[in-house]
Amino acid sequence: MSLPKDFLWGFATASYQIEGSADVDGRGPSIWDTFCAIPGKIADGSSGAVACDSYKRTKEDIDLLKSLGAKAYRFSISWSRIIPIGGRNDPINQKGIDHYVKFVDDLLEAGITPFITLFHWDLPDGLDKRYGGLLNREEFPLDFENYARVMFKAIPKCKHWITFNEPWCSSILGYNTGYFAPGHTSDRSRSAVGDSAREPWIAGHNILVAHGRAVKAYREDFKPTQGGEIGITLNGDATLPWDPEDPADVEACDRKIEFAISWFADPIYFGTYPESMRKQLGDRLPTFTDEEVALVKGSNDFYGMNHYTANYIKHKTGTPPDDDFLGNLETLFYNKNGDCIGPETQSFWLRPHAQGFRDLLNWLSKRYGHPKIYVTENGTSLKGENDMPLEKIVEDDFRVKYFNDYVNAMAKASEEDGVDVRGYLAWSLMDNFEWAEGYETRFGVTYVDYEHDQKRHPKKSAKSLAKLFDGLIKKE
Ligand code: GBH
């Protein structure tokens, strides 16, 4: 089994999860700063104000990447460091730009290929306050395009751009369940605002158009001279029928992926929302104007895939409630026979099931005409890790096995099934601010000691990836 010669592998992070330095060098607040300040939103009451202190430790982080043999690094830019208020007529903060320009120079000098995510959920709070952020169909795409242009111009050396990370999360968790910033939900026990039946679909639509605008700008004004590529990163779990004999469960498996992934990928590859979504959501799902279709259709140079877990799917009967976002089905970790999909982790939503990765790679490849795929995130937390002594934490055999199984499943998809997968970024380079879960859930291949000056301790899994890929990537 093998992977192509120029296959890129490395690690991924995101600005708000690692940088800290929330008030340094002119950064403005993002919706996550605001959200974290609301009591009860973050499990341990924490925030990203300090996090891994990576804003000040770029050299240390690059040395770490080098020592682990990484060929690539995916990180995100904090929009509110670049344009602190956020909008296209607001002041630009040169210090913020300089920081990322230097970081990319240093990465390249270390022989590491940067993958830059422009938006990993940390919207400038000023835009949420000014016009409702992602919900504003006129303003948001224009402001995002402007911000993207500033970055394309500033960092011509970056050849791999990702517009949005997991728009499903920004839309559903931000505007339906209220689990993520800005915390809108119809559930009045969780928040004072929101319309869970409509807002997520509006936010998702506006993200797609913003993505389309940024891609058009890149292709017309930067790509011809810079020669890079641009795409979006989508999250989605693998699905298996709860009862393989029941055609309704089998059908619900596809519907689950359509509501998670095809919601964004169908417009990007075909110019329309999936039929299953239109059928259930009716006109609560926005309709693309001709101008929007022209922006969105065909707007991926590559497909960015974030993948972690799998679920058994059981269809539901009857009319789903207005705020249903799954597609009228249930997700389960056990099937009809009582088989369990995989072992528990520290994350309630994550259970390893590597075969699902191979299956989903095939599903995507088939539906979207064999696109070039980068796996932009894959990784796991580990049950009880936070409460273990350091000597045990660094012996993370569970995570070593997870990577081993998942990367081998990917190699099979590549070699045996012909899926065009070109890169793999493990989540994550180090433990970090795990959003609503705070710091207790750890996804790093490196332990970060938050009590002792954020000291980094590589775990066994950190070193395991170089060995794994060295054995798989063709030498010529
Ligand atoms: C990624 O999302 C993120 O990109 C990354 O920032 C994060 O640190 C990493 O995962 C680990 O969590 O509320 O029941 O719907 C992964 C995909 C999708 C996983 C939403 C959590 C929430 C479960 N995420 N899901 S639920």
In short:
Helix content is 39%, strand content 14%. The protein has 17 helices and 13 strands. The protein has an eight-stranded parallel β-barrel with strand order 1-2-3-4-5-7-10-11, surrounded by five helices.
Can you offer a commentary on this structure?
- One of its GO terms (biological process) is cellulose catabolic process.
- One of its GO terms (molecular function) is cellobiose glucosidase activity.
- Keywords: Glycosidase, Hydrolase.
- Plays an important role in cellulose degradation. Shows hydrolytic activity against several glycosidic compounds.
- Its EC number is 3.2.1.21.
- The chain has 476 residues and is α/β, with parallel strands linked by helices.
- It has a single domain, classed as Glycosidases (TIM Barrel), CATH 3.20.20.80.
- Helices cover 39% and strands 14% of the residues.
- The protein has 17 helices and 13 strands.
- The protein has an 8-stranded parallel β-barrel, surrounded by 5 helices.
- Helix 9 (199-221) crosses helix 11 (247-270).
- The protein starts with 7 loop residues before the first strand and ends with a helix.
- The mean pLDDT is 98.
- The chain binds ligand GBH.
- The site of ligand GBH has 16 residues, from helix 8.
